[in-house]
Amino acid sequence: MDRPRRLRRTPALRALTREVHLHPEQFIHPIFVHERDTVTDIATMPGVQRHSIGSAVQQAREALALGVPSVILFGIPDHKDALGTQAYAEEGIIQRATRAIKASVPEVNVIADTCLCEYTDHGHCGPLCEVPGLSGQDAWTVDNDASLALLAQTAVSQARAGADVIAPSAMMDGQVAAIRAALDGAGFTHVPVMSYAVKYASAYYGPFRDAAGSTPSVGNRATYQMDPAGGYREALREARLDAEQGADTLMVKPALAYLDVLNLLKREFDLPVVAYNVSGEYSLIKAAAAAGFMDERRTVLETLTGFRRAGADAIITYHALDAARWLAEDARA
Description:
Blueprint: H1 11-16, E1 27-34, E2 40-41, E3 49-51, H2 53-65, E4 70-76, H3 93-104, E5 109-114, E6 128-130, E7 140-142, H4 144-161, E8 165-168, H5 175-185, E9 194-199, H6 206-212, H7 232-245, E10 249-253, H8 259-268, E11 273-277, H9 279-290, H10 296-310, E12 314-317, H11 320-332
Parallel strand pairs: 1-3, 1-4, 1-12, 4-5, 5-8, 9-10, 10-11, 11-12
Antiparallel strand pairs: 2-3, 6-7
Helix pairs in contact: 2-3, 3-4, 4-5, 7-8
């Protein structure tokens, strides 16, 4: 008789035969940075704050002390306009935060989210244009090719500020090629591109849009982000295009509802794969834990383990610091 339970009998036996391991080095800690000198709570994301530049530096230092060597920065400027000019301003919030973190904690990998949605007054990922023949909400979309030059300019300004990795998230066709060419042309051939290669028009982004103030005022993002029912062909096509254009890593966002897609990319490409454990996934666990419906610690670690089992080499997660503490406690036990 086969008895798989033999290898589950004790904690030591279970540890001996595990295939999947979580480590804080695999986590990327997101930080929202705004122009204020205060730290403010985000109501839809319990435990997450908008940070001043000084507080962002402290967050990066705390992450490193916990064994989390990477942070990803999202900027919230005071001034927004139709072209998102603060995204590529030399004294923009992300540029200043990057310089401050690299000056104080140079060992930390600073990943710059490269998009325009937090910087435009309409909340979209590039300048808008009208769609001929349509009216109302459907009459507006993002001008793809006009956005490429602005995204490339943003990437170069972020690299110049000291960003270790550029992470384009706008889902514009050709954005990786445009950014790679701009970085190379400016002498940043050593700076990798972490592409949001497979990014869906997802309901799981709601809390993030509250945090970043990037809810679209007109139209919607379904014209450039992927259809959740698009299937494997669309995912493979998007990932392949980014790989061919020079992406150094491929991301799946959101991660939890798309573990099959994450595993598909892991099997089909020889590039590192990143899972984005997004704001809605985070807030669902927080709400359930607050109501006493679930054990937060066990649920978080099980979820992160699921991302790793599906093939994620790295995980962007708002749970990063808590998970690192829990793993350290488990190691000491």
